[in-house]
Request: fold
Amino acid sequence: MSFEDLGFSKVDTDRERRTGYPEVIYGEGKSAEQIYQIMQLLIDKHERVMVTRLSKDKAEQLTALFPEAVYHSVPRILLYGRPLQQYQSEIIVLCAGTSDLFVAEEAALTAEWMGCPVKRIYDVGVAGIDRLLAHREEITKASVLIVVAGMEGALPSVVGGLVRRPVIAVPTSVGYGAHMEGLTPLLSMLTSCASGMSVVNIDNGFGAAYQAALILQLASEGEQK
Amino acid sequence: MSFEDLGFSKVDTDRERRTGYPEVIYGEGKSAEQIYQIMQLLIDKHERVMVTRLSKDKAEQLTALFPEAVYHSVPRILLYGRPLQQYQSEIIVLCAGTSDLFVAEEAALTAEWMGCPVKRIYDVGVAGIDRLLAHREEITKASVLIVVAGMEGALPSVVGGLVRRPVIAVPTSVGYGAHMEGLTPLLSMLTSCASGMSVVNIDNGFGAAYQAALILQLASEGEQK
Amino acid sequence: MSFEDLGFSKVDTDRERRTGYPEVIYGEGKSAEQIYQIMQLLIDKHERVMVTRLSKDKAEQLTALFPEAVYHSVPRILLYGRPLQQYQSEIIVLCAGTSDLFVAEEAALTAEWMGCPVKRIYDVGVAGIDRLLAHREEITKASVLIVVAGMEGALPSVVGGLVRRPVIAVPTSVGYGAHMEGLTPLLSMLTSCASGMSVVNIDNGFGAAYQAALILQLASEGEQK
Amino acid sequence: MSFEDLGFSKVDTDRERRTGYPEVIYGEGKSAEQIYQIMQLLIDKHERVMVTRLSKDKAEQLTALFPEAVYHSVPRILLYGRPLQQYQSEIIVLCAGTSDLFVAEEAALTAEWMGCPVKRIYDVGVAGIDRLLAHREEITKASVLIVVAGMEGALPSVVGGLVRRPVIAVPTSVGYGAHMEGLTPLLSMLTSCASGMSVVNIDNGFGAAYQAALILQLASEGEQK
Amino acid sequence: MSFEDLGFSKVDTDRERRTGYPEVIYGEGKSAEQIYQIMQLLIDKHERVMVTRLSKDKAEQLTALFPEAVYHSVPRILLYGRPLQQYQSEIIVLCAGTSDLFVAEEAALTAEWMGCPVKRIYDVGVAGIDRLLAHREEITKASVLIVVAGMEGALPSVVGGLVRRPVIAVPTSVGYGAHMEGLTPLLSMLTSCASGMSVVNIDNGFGAAYQAALILQLASEGEQK
Amino acid sequence: MSFEDLGFSKVDTDRERRTGYPEVIYGEGKSAEQIYQIMQLLIDKHERVMVTRLSKDKAEQLTALFPEAVYHSVPRILLYGRPLQQYQSEIIVLCAGTSDLFVAEEAALTAEWMGCPVKRIYDVGVAGIDRLLAHREEITKASVLIVVAGMEGALPSVVGGLVRRPVIAVPTSVGYGAHMEGLTPLLSMLTSCASGMSVVNIDNGFGAAYQAALILQLASEGEQK
Amino acid sequence: MSFEDLGFSKVDTDRERRTGYPEVIYGEGKSAEQIYQIMQLLIDKHERVMVTRLSKDKAEQLTALFPEAVYHSVPRILLYGRPLQQYQSEIIVLCAGTSDLFVAEEAALTAEWMGCPVKRIYDVGVAGIDRLLAHREEITKASVLIVVAGMEGALPSVVGGLVRRPVIAVPTSVGYGAHMEGLTPLLSMLTSCASGMSVVNIDNGFGAAYQAALILQLASEGEQK
Amino acid sequence: MSFEDLGFSKVDTDRERRTGYPEVIYGEGKSAEQIYQIMQLLIDKHERVMVTRLSKDKAEQLTALFPEAVYHSVPRILLYGRPLQQYQSEIIVLCAGTSDLFVAEEAALTAEWMGCPVKRIYDVGVAGIDRLLAHREEITKASVLIVVAGMEGALPSVVGGLVRRPVIAVPTSVGYGAHMEGLTPLLSMLTSCASGMSVVNIDNGFGAAYQAALILQLASEGEQK
Reply:
């Protein structure tokens, strides 16, 4: 591993060669100036970069500097350039409610930027199970499923029982009271009775998509002997 | 309200007149001798009594003294006599997994002892949603539904979305790790996205059945003007 | 179940036929524009709609578009139209303190909008038990009781012991310190020593009223054979 | 302050002179041999000693060595000798349920051993409020009230509203599930809406009685100028 | 108990006769208008009133209406009139750090308003134990001690070991990180190794002072036979 | 989905056809008799079955009835028969300490039974980073990595940074004090700074292996178009 | 110990003589006016003072009054004067990510102000272990290491395994969701498998540096006989 | 770093050369047979070994095999051989109560085995502050202080304020109720108002002593330039 040292940050410029993807910038807690410097370095090296958790006002400063960059305000993601590879298999992103969209879109955009075809199936929470079952055929065709849910976080368990592919569950901070800012669906997903399911941090649509893309990458390379 | 004072306990002997049901004895933390005295008092008064959370060895001492009493070892309930009223409407008790049976049976036996017809639908956890859907028609006919689930506690949300009757959710202590002895499904049920649902304490099959019976009682009396 | 797909939301237009009530819109986390579209759809179909947890500024935008809609600022509810049915039996909503009013009113308005006669008994917290006992006769006449309390959440236990009807307890976020934003009265109500009581999420006056209305609906239909 | 150093323990032999009471031995986590040595020292000095949280088998070893000592098995207290002073005012110990007796008796015996007249009012939990109200007159005559409750811990709030004397609340570990081994009634009592009430640790009947006795001592000495 | 019903509030106008003190108004969560009405009622009846947790802007509105009322901005208390009785014995209020002043002053002002002489000993946290020990003689002369501390909440344990009078401990929300907004000192005080100490809610200086005043009242009346 | 109803359990006999794997029996909370019946049914149908979380004494009863079954006492797994498919790609199971072996072996045996080649790299906790780095070359060749760790749960983050394949992290209950029976490494893994990592429940080696096997299955089938 | 009493604060003016360092002012919760008075007192006495957790606007007021004082905005520290002693040995401050800088700088500046040479190694989180290993030689030369990390808090464990000197771990509030504002890395660091490591409160860079400086002071004095 | 691979364990045989101390065996969760093999390896290499958290029955098996080894039953430590170096400076181990002895002795024995002179000052909890102050002179002479306390964990704060040397605080699991098995004193110590103090895990006497020994080692080597 080699990296570029900016003082406040050591940027991993070797990452794309090693993993297929350049480093991604986590925007929270960094100043627009710091992000600008890291972006410049990564664009020079890779011609592409993604910034997550970027506030609107920092995004405005950065798009002024990088006019080609596109900011998506719901998932708060800034994209520049496009990835090298493009996979064939499909990732399906499901979400339970309209309020979970910001996380679902973080997942969907990340996966697309990493070269994955994405199908979105939104607002299919378990309290109206027919809305999900209307997509039953469809979801069994996905290679990987990302299931986003706030409130009680029950959707991934139901989906996990319908498919034979890996399910990555994402709890969201959408809810109130006993929901404890997402801790309840997080713990609930971890104790799911469905097999073949794993979980990422609250609102971490990016992390789920990243793992899903690695799985597609592996599938695209076929068996490793 | 009038009561009989045993020193260690004040027994509410007027309860059946007021509420339709005699006082129920919570067996945990009481000695066999204490339970014996309270039972004797209640049998003298009402000819019926129920003891919950009764350990096997205390049950053996008490059935020796009250040969007519019947002990159910899975839900750890001792029953003596039968209630006055018998309702027509049906309560359905559902449970998610085989390990939740001890709570589901506490609910079912309590409801029956309070005069409610009970239908049991067990092992219909959401990770195999077709097992539940096979009973779809059936569950829409219940007047009240008691839904028992451990692990992530997702079953009540799905059931709640399928029916237009009150759903009482009971989380169980069945699970491990992030399940935190039932706290996770408890909180999860409280943040359910289904309307018309309320929750009782972990493993509290008795409490759910008690409320369900009060609802049937109300329905049997019809509108109160 | 059939639904209308707005892309960001799948609206259940068949709900009134199945359950007696049209879908209710949860306002938090949805934009005024999104709510507008769902309202339009539901009004076209049912001529009635309720929006809960609606902020004042969104309410102003929406009442400008739907002049017939009425906004209640304490419980933050927007109402349009009125329900089909009207029950005879009465729901009583009690609350412990003046600060719990916003939740009690969410419950009361929801119940009324669902066709239930509602009596309000407010500021009867247990630390001045005579205020509650002054209503003793009255509360035994309710068909269902919704008991709202913040702080230590003790009121439902006392009420539960005075009546033979279902009690639905609602903890509120009113309190400080060890109150932990409502978690303490929530847990406290769940461990209540009163029988026949169940609990909904913190501040969830809507959920309590919804279940109460389902119980009245059942009672109005009488025994189900 | 002067003390006797036993190596494993520094015994405060000066305490009675300073505070009116000799040091009390907390039995848990000490061996019978260690307790024996501390008892011997305190008896030599004061002719009286109390040991709390003492298991039955250690008690048997110690009563064999000190035949005058009396062991109370429910509150697990060993008493030897009697205190110097005897107050006139009365402490009332109330408890909510039969299962809370072990804590209530720890409080009552401690208070008596410290010279306080004690009246016991047991099994008056709030879910049957008339049992408490039957003692209304009586409890307003106490100088201090110790209120012991498990489950949701609501009793002290109600009592606190009925009297104008200090109320010391003691939560107990009696309950299950959301009760979290006493944490729920502990937090609940701390957020009580009643004024003039304070709280001690879960099951700490001793601590409550100790403070109550200090209050009686102060009252017996009258105003301090 | 008799009360005046304002609709949103039932004001206990009989309280001074029963307990020696008129009702106190908890300002949080009430509008200036609501507080105004309750104040008016209580002033008409008792010529005195205290409002706690009152924000500065509400205070400005109310002092405009009641020019005799005095607002204390650090503890956020509004006082009107003065109590009937005046005790002789002294309460000492100690606090650990400068940042805990707002709670210590809530306690001190409340106690004074209830007729208790108060001595303040501030900024005597245990990490500089000599600051406390410099007041050793003084604190043994108090009749009751209120000990306020944030951070680790250790001060009450040390004070409790120095005196033979009741100690009421008040944890504060002053601290960060593992302090968890006061939960840590709260729990810490509850597990104190000092005897004769009890605890009130986080930042509840009012509650501690209220109980302390009741103790002084009892002491002033002498033994109750 | 079709299933066989044993009354206490609904066995999914169609699962192998749908997912490639027969249903797995979770042994905890089921009696030996119940497990026997489910095993018999699954063996009749599939000639293979796995039972997890099986206590030693139940295992002895079952191996007496199924002499071909093999019991592994460290991970408490009973295996009967072997799976249909055999993949080429490799799963690596790493664990941090010797005490984590029981979870690591649950993962390894599960993966093997599902047809995956497994390499074990044990006792490579991060406090001796050279032990892990000695396997650096090796771990980059795995197709999926299962990383098991108790204590602070740091190993998956380090491994996640070394590879470009999916990492599934498994926290264990090995630790004490602030470790809170595994909750600490669970939460810690969820907040990992490594991308491409997801998490399963505490001690859930089975769940991690199940998802890993699904990923290998997908890879063996190649891209899905 | 002697101190100066400002009423709201007792300033320890004797501290430098006793410990080598004057008292440090914790800025949070104190007014600019209060800080000014304490600063004045300490400058008169010691010619040096440090204020931590000082907001920008209070800093502006104070630098206007003390033009020689320097405010560092990232760690929010105000420095005036310089310490008496200067040690030879080196402290290394490491941090995991760019967002942890504010805590790392609080530690670094504090240590420097206390006379310690400080080397900074930033952005060396464990998910890119080579960035840390590039400094391997260097870190073994430190006398004490302060390791700052948010997210999962794994860095101190790895560093602890590489050196034979004391490691002081500082968790930060940088993270989201399961990170629980720093509680997760705090608990995680406490259960570290590395020996020779201890932990301070979340974001407490000051506390870590203070202890590190005491260690250097001890080392500079050599063995104490 | 080089290590010996026993399959279930990778033993670091190079550790003494690197750090001055051979690897220590954590006995919990390892079988007597596994410990035996690791001990044999370490004795062959270093002629010394320490095993911590060793149960009595495993200790009996191991002392039969290594007759020179000595088992200390209170701290559950097995010692074999003695360390190379011997420092001059002194560590003082203080503990708050008799019940904390098992942790204090784990710390004291570990420090002695690592070559540190240790002075023990036991049963000096803050509720009898004079017991601690009687040792005031003495404790200012220590080079490092290890302060062990259960209950509210206040002792380290007081000690920290009396000395100018590093204080390492060890919370213990001794307490009940709100003490939460040590979590309360752990959090309490972390929020201490004393400077120069750090904290280790609950009951981790070993960890505190290990860091203390590293500090003495550094002091014995003098300044590092």
